[in-house]
Amino acid sequence: MGSMCKINAAMSIWTRLSLFVLASSLCLCLCRAEDSAMENIVTEKKAEESHRQDSADLLVFILLLTLTILTIWLFKHRRFRFLHETGLAMIYGLLVGVVLRYAIHVPSDMSNVTLSCNVNASPATLLVNVSGKFYEYTLKGEISANEVNDIQDNEMLRKVTFDPEVFFNILLPPIIFHAGYSLKRRHFFRNLGSILAYAFVGTVVSCFIIGLVMYGCVTLMKQIGHLGGDFFFTDCLFFGAIVSATDPVTVLAIFNELHVDADLYALLFGESVLNDAVAVVLSSSIVAYQPEGDNTHTFEAMAMLKSFGIFLGVFSGSFALGVATGVVTALVTKFTKLRDFPLLETALFFLMSWSTFLLAEACGFTGVVAVLFCGMTQAHYTFNNLSPESQNRTKQLFELLNFLAENFIFSYMGLTLFTFHNHVFNPIFIVGAFLAVFLGRAGNIYPLSFLLNLGRRNKIGSNFQHMMMFAGLRGAMTFALSIRDTATYARQMMFSTTLLVVFFTVWICGGGTTQMLSCQKIRVGVDTDVENSIGPDGVERRSTKQESAWLFRIWYNFDHNYLKPILTHSGPPLTATLPACCGPLARCLTSPQAYENEGQLKDSDSDLILNDGDITLTYGDITVSTDATGAHTSGTPVGGVVVNSDEALDRELAFGDHELVIRGTRLVLPMDDSEPPLSLDSHRHRHKNETMS
Amino acid sequence: MGSMCKINAAMSIWTRLSLFVLASSLCLCLCRAEDSAMENIVTEKKAEESHRQDSADLLVFILLLTLTILTIWLFKHRRFRFLHETGLAMIYGLLVGVVLRYAIHVPSDMSNVTLSCNVNASPATLLVNVSGKFYEYTLKGEISANEVNDIQDNEMLRKVTFDPEVFFNILLPPIIFHAGYSLKRRHFFRNLGSILAYAFVGTVVSCFIIGLVMYGCVTLMKQIGHLGGDFFFTDCLFFGAIVSATDPVTVLAIFNELHVDADLYALLFGESVLNDAVAVVLSSSIVAYQPEGDNTHTFEAMAMLKSFGIFLGVFSGSFALGVATGVVTALVTKFTKLRDFPLLETALFFLMSWSTFLLAEACGFTGVVAVLFCGMTQAHYTFNNLSPESQNRTKQLFELLNFLAENFIFSYMGLTLFTFHNHVFNPIFIVGAFLAVFLGRAGNIYPLSFLLNLGRRNKIGSNFQHMMMFAGLRGAMTFALSIRDTATYARQMMFSTTLLVVFFTVWICGGGTTQMLSCQKIRVGVDTDVENSIGPDGVERRSTKQESAWLFRIWYNFDHNYLKPILTHSGPPLTATLPACCGPLARCLTSPQAYENEGQLKDSDSDLILNDGDITLTYGDITVSTDATGAHTSGTPVGGVVVNSDEALDRELAFGDHELVIRGTRLVLPMDDSEPPLSLDSHRHRHKNETMS
């Protein structure tokens, strides 16, 4: 039998993905059984029990989500507007967490974890010899010494926790992809410079401000002896990075319902979408900061440069992969007649988008960043190639996935407040964190807005700035980043504090959005086309050529003349725009429709393209084109003449924006009781009527 | 450090679900490292590599599926009809399997699995003490002694395999649910008795015939010394059970395109859908056969009764759970106004259907059986309560999931031919298996058809019987059941043989369907309403009252008068049909629309309900109602009079069946080159034209 070992059971601090992993166990009492059949039965029986427990765990979440859905409906039915669905999901998660923590006691079977074994290495797989039978074990994770004996009461709680990688591998990708796929590109590109500034520069600034404030806080705590473990500056920076990722879903939903200024919406939405990406890569870069030598937390220029290089490399690599997959999908949908088969087209679209994520992860980049840019590319190019049926199907599919994933994460957030067993709530740290978050947001918004306003014609007013300051809600990305690794004291404290930050911002800031809007005198119910032709000072803007950033014009021309013709069916045909030497290639890449529509093809999502008098409502909910007389038109270019991109750009900017700025799944709550709840159909009718009048 | 142990690496025979399980590993060379930070880095690095590998694995499958989709499109584009998409997916799987097996060699890192430990029990979790740090290990499974040293070359192959439970927990449920949700209930219920006979009696008969033939085969093999291990009668029966599950997707697709007789379609489809359920529970019951005493393979009446009891209990329990969830969903969608919010409604529908599966699994029943009956219930009741938008969304969602899951399974089937490392190909067994399958199918179809024809008015002709015999393809369920447990020699041999059976039936029988149809002189291009009013002998049937089985009539009355009014908005109102004592309850349960439509509400899926002269095309692709003059009508009862169910039944049977018998995702291939590929839109137009003319 060899040497006898004692194996002590322990509670793991790495939460386990218990979904569908076939874990067998044997009772100690049977360890001497010579009947292998009996052992097999018991093994299968225990596996069965484990599987049942896993199913029960998932069922808890399904019920949470179902409750959330029914309550959302109830709120809409009774016109409650003080609590958004994400805040609601969190509350339900809290309630279930309380129940699980204090009301349910599952007597755990302790006889199966009382062996210990001393070895001198921990390999990935371990083979254990029991009475001549070999059993294979997989390494789950490390357990901190102070938890080794603390198992009894936490068996149930351990069960209802997921491996943090579930968030990054299963839950976040649909959310991020949907954000990219439903991006309203008109205002996004119009404010591109500002958005990039806020997302990149602002996030880094916020990260450092928060890091510095927290470092001061932590130093103070160490002085007065309140710090229970190590907390280095890199940890502070890491905290700054993860908590700089904003997720203003609640605010954007309300903006959408109340038809707030489209630029404000675009700034907030664009910033949040991009700073999620920046935060992910930034946090990875900070974690990768590894100077040589024993002390891994001293400043070292080489290591910092390396981190910076990692940031650039991972971000651009993910960007490139995402765009590449989008481009491939666009080409495939352009050159095949898949549009005849919506099911095939939708399946292909879904698979290629999913493959972006896997490809990025397999190459060592960041999957969520890749899917973001993939989503944007798909929306800008591939969407035009899809059949209308597929357009609907893909939109609805990702809308549903986004809805389920988001509510799942927020429910889980509420749950972990009670089920996470390593919380470290430190009042000083918490207060410091709130202060730091406040200062970080302020240091992000105000200085940058000032600098941007030097260059912008359409200035970001101070009321907008205050609103953006207020709307810096934290959400799914921050949570996922903080729960990813809770091995050390520092990380645990950060996680606990992050939870509180998220709760506060979602409930308080989210709930107070409407009041803030009126307080800041931000106009609501804005009719976007009127709004554009009359500037904030009341002067009608006839030509907005000057306000389009140089960067935007360059991009627009390139996109209009080359990218769109290559990747979609739109004109002008490449045979006209490419030099003669590329003739064969141009003929190959140009689709027949591009010749028919020498001007711009009126894509169903043409948010950048207008013809005379056309009012095109872009993709979001409505894709109806009517000309000025109210008659329906589709796809007629301006007199059949090649419209050069400058004219097209001017026309587009002059006629203003008619885009419905809608983000994905946000539910529409009526402004007052007299309005019926806006559903998709009634929304369409309402806007059709508005347009016609 | 305690006692030193040696842990021998081994190749597990239980394939591991490597998706998203954070598995860390350390290099042996670092096992003495005193720098915990270095260890953490290495741990994270190895976890990262493991994650990358998992992503790469999934990517392989995504690419397989993408290739399959593009090839399907290409086939349709060029009108190739000899290979269906499932057969195609298998071929691609084979190709990739060959590449993985022979062309790719991944040098595996062996330094991390070379420790062994001798203990006297194998608990669920194992704590290993390495230099003072504790690592937790989970039991993965048992390893047979002969594989303990065989690890090197199979690292890559192990990676591209999935835990068999993935099939039952992730892939099969959408397929089975979709089968239930897209069931064409008219013909299903008309042939209910026959379908139940084939599914239950036929499957059991087939199981025993195959078991007996295999037992003879195996005995012969033992005599001539060709049997490499144990193979008991229970194993033979188990093989009979798993290989009795038919999955004629290919055949049904062709039937659909060519508009073959609807009854034949219903018989085949209904049988396949139900015998999957029966096979699952039957195989579990056989596995649960555990007589007392040392020899677990002798016949014992008590154990057999117990198995039978398990079969009944599990089947009815799963049935009850599935129906219950469907009923709850129907009630929720009936009494709330969720239909105003398609996203919420779709999400709720999806969650509740998924919860069926989890609930059944958590209670120890069979999830796939529960989702089948849940799907049927949802289609029959809940579907009527959904808004049109939600109806489309749910149909499309499950259609997509079904498509992806099915092609994934078939690709995987092709792949495992080369990547599974425990194949046991025994020519005698294989020949015996084919013979047994043939005999089992014959023993299922012919005797039962004879008996059923004694009671049926609409006899199952011999050509139908031959077609059903031929169309006994095996597919996803058989594969999943056989791969579920490949621990023993017997199971491995069964798995290998099952693969070959599936390959043969899908490629040969599936590919030969069209020829078989013409050979058996089975009519194609059948116009279902004409077909019904003129019986096979050419005599017009004016009243088909006599042919509806007594069972069907009872069911129809009960459903029409009570179940539909309770669960949907259809009439007659319960206040009329229930006794006076249930007055308050009836008023509570009756929806306002039921009063408006004193007769039958014209549900958009009313496949059992007709009003005078109405031709209702049921849900599948089209939900257009026109009356005899061609004008559109909707929901008008017959003169506002309460139609009793007998009259309704007569009318329904007399006017024949106009149901488009379409199963889910099956692609429509044109009959000849002159017809354009039928897409959803053109299909709709075609039938609208046919109806109008």
Q: What's the layout of helices and strands?
A:
The structure is a homodimer of 693-residue chains.
Chain A: H1 36-77, H2 85-103, E1 116-119, E2 125-130, E3 133-143, H3 155-159, H4 165-181, H5 185-190, H6 192-223, H7 233-243, H8 249-258, H9 262-287, H10 301-335, H11 342-362, H12 367-385, H13 388-419, H14 427-455, H15 462-470, H16 476-483, H17 489-511, H18 513-519, H19 528-533, H20 550-567, H21 574-577, H22 583-589, H23 592-596, E4 615-616, E5 625-626, H24 645-654, H25 680-692
Antiparallel strand pairs in A: 2-3, 4-5
Helix pairs in contact in A: 1-2, 1-13, 2-13, 4-12, 4-13, 6-7, 6-9, 6-14, 7-9, 9-10, 10-11, 10-12, 11-12, 11-13, 14-17, 16-17
Describe this entry's structure for a reader.
- 2 copies of one chain form a homodimer.
- By secondary structure, chain A is mainly alpha-helical.
- Chain A is 60% helix and 4% strand.
- Chain A is built from 25 helices and 5 strands.
- In chain A, the strands form 2 sheets. Chain A has a two-stranded antiparallel sheet with strand order 2-3. In chain A, strands 4-5 form a two-stranded antiparallel sheet.
- In chain A, α6 packs across α9, α7 runs antiparallel to α9 and α9 (262-287) crosses α10 (301-335).
- The longest helix of chain A has 42 residues, at 36-77.
- Chains A and B meet through α1, β1, β2, β3 and α4 of A and α1, β1, β2, β3 and α4 of B.
